[in-house]
Amino acid sequence: MEKPYVVGIDMGGTNTVFGVVDARGTILYSGSIKTSKHANVSDYVDELAQAIDIVIKQAGGYDKIKGIGIGAPNGNYFSGCIESAANLPWKGRLPLAQMISERLEHIPVTMTNDANAAAIGEMTYGAARGMKDFIMITLGTGVGSGIVIGGNLVYGHDGFAGELGHVIVRRHNGRMCGCGRQGCLETYASATGIARTAREYLEIRTENSLLRALDPDTITSKDIYDAAIQNDKIALDIFEATGHMLGEAFADFIAFSSPEAIILFGGLAKAGKLISEPIQEAMERNVLDVFKGKTKLIFSQLKEADAAILGASALGWEAKEYN
Amino acid sequence: MEKPYVVGIDMGGTNTVFGVVDARGTILYSGSIKTSKHANVSDYVDELAQAIDIVIKQAGGYDKIKGIGIGAPNGNYFSGCIESAANLPWKGRLPLAQMISERLEHIPVTMTNDANAAAIGEMTYGAARGMKDFIMITLGTGVGSGIVIGGNLVYGHDGFAGELGHVIVRRHNGRMCGCGRQGCLETYASATGIARTAREYLEIRTENSLLRALDPDTITSKDIYDAAIQNDKIALDIFEATGHMLGEAFADFIAFSSPEAIILFGGLAKAGKLISEPIQEAMERNVLDVFKGKTKLIFSQLKEADAAILGASALGWEAKEYN
Which pLDDT does position A320 carry in this prediction? Predict the structure, then answer.
């Protein structure tokens, strides 16, 4: 009998969540541990493996598990290693996939970064079922992407393809990015980017705004959303400007891979039409004629609470051995 | 016995060239006809089929031909049709692949656009042999591209992917493009783009230049090259600016698909280091850290006179029936 379950592990800078998932995308058993608690990566993997061992046994044991998928910052599909991830406590090249497999009866493990995992999750369980060509854009603390072409995730020759948060959208006088360059899409369209836009607007413009009641340094994308749904003009303009920036960038992405859909995921996607309408407008206005009206703009169909585990788990169906 | 030859057809706005090609990329027999002579597309296809019939018989007959590949402006891989190509005399949707197959004993025919054909040619016979991930950039009258990911050409969901000459490199005050938009890479980095840059430089700057002896309206990229190799400062600066623009764009392409190489082809590529050095410099300076030093910048290894036929012919090895 085909093994009926996979394990998904999502490593974040703060927490690591994991679960046993069936072929329909139901999370049967799940758990979490603190990522940042351990100074030493093997202590972390030991604790994680013990916690996963429990859910595997709850699900009926190791015979039921086809594979394990890991979504991790800078996780490399080809090597199964995390390579110099800025927001993890351990440095250098960490062979996470192998370390986890060794501690869990050598179940095959596949790893990739979180945005790629989200794309595979969407293709396996979500809005991209049946699609062969789409781009997943994750609008969170940063802007990530997972690109699917011809039904396969694009890893590139080195496993690091799909860094669309770091295409340059402002060539001159662009905002400083955490990557050390200037003008990256992420500096405008991430949760921190949109908060930065809010501070700029509040400084430059003079109208009243609900946002003026807040400490500018702690404004969040949620605050801007709350103001926008109350028809606050500045907040609405911030969403419009952010959406336009994304739409312009998407028009260039379409020239590259002509996807059937671009799928939005993450915190900012929760703004719904406030963000999707200006994206759609700018995307259609900026796209080459031959692509007009062809690429759908849709939202992820995965529940955010489950999406991280589901995305990672979807990799487990194609898990392999790393050497 | 496996059929040993393919036929390649390259349709240009002025001439259509074709040839019988073996598995090593040797053109055994070739010929050409005028594309623009016939007001009616079936008259054109009739003449073309008769001319190809001759080279097929020279090569030993229809039994020797595995397939036919066509590279054509706006040629669509999925439909086998040319769809509204600006520089062909016939309008609308033309089922070229089927029309040619019908007139040549139903040999299977595959079609794509010229830049995609060039990429497949490079992968089959040229500098990209053995590569699974690369981007071909054709620097001709326009700027075209063929993107290969995981060993497959990227067609997108509609067959029109890979229009990298039309990514926007100047969001504000960009040059008008033939596509109706502003700031496309093609408006700067094509043969006509670089001539436009020359006219701007000659108008704005005051130094002497060999280019001042020429009528600005007829300056060609070849003129600029000729001046640059004589150390003409303005001509050198034009190549540097053009290369920088390309290098900046390439850095964004790398963030998308992380290719092993970017391959330059076409008239401007003949400028050699004059164009490749500033590209390389700007590409490395602008690329995200994780990609630095990884993507090679190389020139096509196909002779330009043969490349069009070879590129198209390479498609013939995977030719299929269109319905």
Answer: 66
Q: pLDDT by residue (tens digit) across A225-271? A: 999 999 999 999 999 999 999 999 999 999 999 999 999 999 899 99
CB contact under 8 A, A152 and B150: yes
- H runs (alpha helix) in chain B: 41-58, 96-103, 114-125, 186-189, 191-204, 221-228, 233-257, 273-286, 304-316
Q: Confirm or reject contact between A288 and chain B (CB < 8 A).
A: yes
pTM of the model: 0.93
CB A181 within 8 A of CB A166: yes
Mean pLDDT over B37-61 rounds to: 95
**B295 in helix, strand or coil?**
coil
Q: What is the pLDDT of residue A42?
A: 93
ipTM above 0.85? yes
The CA distances from residue B139 to A281, A286, B114, in Å, are 31, 23, 12
Which of A158, A171, A289 faces B258 most closely, judged by CB atoms?
A: A158
User: Which residues from A are below 8 Å from B167, CB to CB?
Assistant: 252, 255-256
Query: In the beta sheet, which residues pair with residue B110?
Result: B69
Q: Which residue of B has its CA nearest to A85?
A: B290
Q: Would an 8 Å CB–CB cutoff place A273 in contact with chain B? A: no
Q: How far apart are CA A184 and CA A189, in angstroms?
A: 9
Distance (Å, whole) CA B53 – CA B7: 11
Token readout for B38 is 């016939």
CB B52, CB B9: distance < 8 Å:
yes
Element (H, E) at A92: none
* Residue closest to A312 by CA, chosen among A156, A155, A110, A146: A110
Residue ranges, chain A, pLDDT below 70: 1, 320-323
pLDDT given for residue A323 in this prediction: 47
Residues 40-99 of B with CB under 8 A from A: 74, 83
